[in-house]
Each structure stands twice: as C-alpha cells, then as structure tokens.
Amino acid sequence: MAGNLPRPYRSVGNRDGSGKRREVSTDQPNPRAAPRQPLIGPTRTGPVPTRGPETNVRDTTKDLLIAIAGGAFDQHERVLEILKSAFAGQDGIVDPPSSVTRLTVEGVIRDAEAGDLLTAETRKDPAPPGETSEGDIVGCLFTKVEEDADGPLLYAYHLAVDPAYQGHGIGHRLFDTVTALAAARQIRRLQIMSRIELKELHAFFTGMGFRQVGTFTHDGYEQPTSLRFEKQL
Ligand SMILES: CC(C)(COP(=O)(O)OP(=O)(O)OC[C@H]1O[C@@H](n2cnc3c(N)ncnc32)[C@H](O)[C@@H]1OP(=O)(O)O)[C@@H](O)C(=O)NCCC(=O)NCCS
C-alpha cells in the first residue's frame, strides 16, 4: 500500500523486518500545524477527572506525533474529513449506518470538549525545542471517562486513520497512547465498541489484547448491532 499513496499522502513510515519504523518524510508544507500541550504531568490520586493536565500524554517519533488536542486546536474540520473518509468504507455494510455519517464539525468540537481528542500527525522533522512540528493530521481517536458497576473506564470511540495512511501502524500507535493516557489517570480499563459486521476490526482489537465483554442493540433492532470490547490494563 505504501507505494500507492497519492500525493499529498506520502507514507509516514513503516516497519521493516526488525519491527522498527523506517524514516520516510512528507514533502508537503502544512499550513494547519497547531500548538500542542506539553508532555505528561504527574499522576494523581482521588476522583478520576474528565480532563486535566494529567492527561497530557503524547507519543513522539520523528515521523509521527500523537498528541491530545489542546485548547488552541483548530483542525476539527480536518478531523471530520478523516472520520468521513475512513468510515465511508462501512457504507452499506453496517446497519444502522454509522453515526459518523451524521457527524458535523460542531459534533466533533462537542465530543472533543466532552473528553479528549487524540490526533496522529505526520512530522516533517523533529521540532526544535519549544516549537511545533509541521505535518498533516492523519488519524484520530476520541476518549471519555465512563463508569459502570466495576468502576471507572476509559471509553474510546471514533477511531479513524486516513485511508491513504492505513496499514502503517498508526491505529496501534493511537491505542498505545490511549493506554498511556488511561495509566496516567489511574484507570485500569479501556473499552471500545465495534459494529457486529466488522469482523476484521474485531480481530484488530483482540490482537491488541481486547476481549468481548458485551453487546449493544440500537433502538428499533431486535438483535445486537455492536460488540463491546474491553482491555484490562
Ligand atoms: C481501524 C483503523 C483505525 C486501523 O488503523 P490502521 O492505522 O490501519 O491500523 P494499523 O496499521 O495499526 O493496524 C492495522 C493492520 O495493518 C497492518 N499493519 C500494521 N502495521 C503495519 C505496517 N507497519 N506495515 C504494514 N502493515 C501494517 C496489520 O495487518 C494490522 O493488523 P494487525 O492487528 O493484525 O497487526 C483503520 O482501518 C480505520 O480508520 N478504519 C475505518 C474506521 C473504523 O472502522 N474505525 C473503528 C471503529 S470502532
């Protein structure tokens, strides 16, 4: 797939046989780079907050930056574009249609404010200290803290990687960062839902250590329409 990426979507990196990423730079200027929050702060005890400085977790390599969108983030339209293009592949497959088909930029902003929005961004070069790297946002994942009978959990949703960048490990990297985010908040469980029809996606989640813990049935349907997966941290 990496050889077929259309411009401006160049491969952002790949793993060779050793499991390491190879360095592949993008060559497009990016007018959309936005300031990011600083690195992770100290962990804390007490009630689990929905947001806060302790959530400042990020995963940085030369070719990809995964960060929590901070207050200065202004690329919600790009996030919506990624969601729409990534979920378009499910049109006609999942029933009922994904909520992403009805999602608006206002909805993206609302969801980002209700919890945390993680973005994966290509990096042209490592940013000098104190400066922001330039790149394109190519993936996203939203999280929010929820609670059930077993205590708090971090619910992850709207996971999407730009189709031109899929299959390069970005989805895994987003989940690695969410795991760090949960750990920083002292939350021991991650959950995500997947539509029942998407068997490859179920394998993707179980491959990352999730197991099915329940089902969900949309209003008006008699059979489960989604599976709930959980990973204990
Ligand atoms: C699900 C989704 C986010 C995965 O993103 P991704 O970046 O392609 O995921 P990854 O590359 O980390 O892993 C996916 C597969 O790509 C392959 N892959 C991973 N790294 C790779 C690499 N460096 N080189 C080649 N292939 C690779 C693997 O087959 C991997 O599956 P595995 O779990 O068996 O290893 C993406 O397919 C997507 O946006 N789908 C549409 C939206 C969607 O369904 N969201 C989930 C709703 S719950």
Write up this protein.
- Residues 1-59 are annotated as: Disordered.
- The structure is a single chain.
- The protein has one domain (54-232): Aminopeptidase, CATH 3.40.630.
- Helix content is 20%, strand content 26%.
- It contains four helices and ten strands.
- An eight-stranded mixed β-sheet has the order 3-4-5-6-7-8-10-9, with helices on both faces. The chain has a two-stranded antiparallel ribbon with strand order 1-2.
- Strand 6 (137-148) and strand 7 (151-161) form a beta hairpin.
- Helix 1 (76-87) crosses helix 2 (105-114).
- The radius of gyration is 18 Å and the shape is globular.
- The protein starts with 13 loop residues before the first strand and ends with a strand.
- The relative contact order is 0.16.
- Residues 1-55 have low confidence and may be disordered.
- Residues 14-15, 86-87, 89, 159-161, 166-172, 192, 194, 201, 204, 207 line the site of coenzyme A.
In short:
The chain has 233 residues and is an alpha+beta fold.
Helix content: 10-25%
| Bound molecule kinds, no repeats | coenzyme A
**Overall outline:** globular
Low-confidence stretches: 1-55
Percent of residues in β-strands: 25-35%
Number of strands: 10
State Rg.
18 Å
Q: CATH topology, what is it called?
A: Aminopeptidase
List keywords for this structure.
233 residues; alpha+beta; Aminopeptidase; eight-stranded mixed sheet; two-stranded antiparallel sheet; 4 helices; 10 strands; globular; disordered N terminus; binds coenzyme A; Bact_Acetyltransf
